[in-house]
Amino acid sequence: MHEDRRDKNLRRRLTSWVDGEREPKDQTLFVMEQRPPRRARQTEEEFERKDRDRLQKFFNWYPAAAAVICLVMVAVLLIAVMNMPGFGQADNPINNEVSDRYLKHGREETGSENAVTAMIVGYRGFDTFGESCVMFLAVAAVMILLAREEHRPADADTEEPEEERADLILEQAARPLIPFMLLIAAYMLLHSETTPGGGFSGGTLLGAGLILTSAAFGAESAQRLLSRRQYSAVRTFGLLAYGLLYGAYIFIGANGLQNHLTRLFLLLDLAVGLVVACTIYGFYALFSRGRI
Amino acid sequence: MIVLEYILLAGVIGCAIAAPLCRRLLASVIVYITMALLMAVLWALLQSPDLAITEAAVGAGVTGILFLLTLKRIHALRDRSDA
User: Fold this and answer.
1) Scanning A22, A95, B3, B61, which has the fewest C-beta atoms within 10 Å of its C-beta?
2) Are A150 and A292 in contact (CB under 8 A)?
3) Mutate to test the interface with B, among A280, A281, A286, A289 (most CBs of B within 10 A)
4) How many domains does chain B divide into?
5) Domain map of chain A by residue range?
């Protein structure tokens, strides 16, 4: 009986809702009339007193809470340290076959004489890919936040003092330095299979050379070297090239095909170097001028 | 050679302690860059040249540049009147 009535009630409500006769439940249109009467506005002193009370309460609890959190963290870390294996024992998990294999077979498996490059670009190439992605996204985020529009004369006059005249000493010091920096960067990028260096440090040096150019000779000469469109193209090309090349490397290696790509590390390091150089130069340009 | 390593280690620790204690922000950044450079020499002596290069390029160069740019942005370089 009761169920039946509720059922009928529900059906009537549904039909009326479908027909559009029932007014909407939240009654958005009439919300002004339904608002409860506003409470009396508290005075300034009352507000201040309440605020001070809250602050006082916070400061009462703050040292205790800080101490408790500190002690808990210390306890957690100490327990974690106690469960770790002892320092310098032979059967520790870090002394396993992986590092042995990297050192013994790295040269024939990756074709790189420098064990660090073999590890960074070869064995742990996906880590490097992730790091490159992080750099790419970091520059993209900084660009979104700081990049100014190219053609906006409205705030051009306000930003004029930022563009300082180049320093004579800096200019004269940079003139002989930049070619050597770029040369060493190229050497590191192209020669990382046998000598120390590689994508990250070589790319950093390349970016530093661009930064020095930009700082000593002004933004225009740096833009002549690497315009905004070129910058974006190089950045994207580096990441894509790395992903495709390393994907091919892994694919070919994992399928047991004969590996013809032992000289691939050169290209991989170059791609990483391009991404890193663009990241560093982009940070400098965006932070100092707001445009590339 | 081991004496040199200890001297460098002392320098690194001294710079690391001094960097946050400097009153001027510019001096703080310079001490930090010094620490990174000492660290780079130390890495080279410990036979890890890859790390040495990266430390010199990233730790000393790029981080220092970014710090200095930040100081310039917040106009902390002009202020010479702090006592």
Assistant:
1) B3
2) no
3) A280
4) 1
5) 108-150+168-288
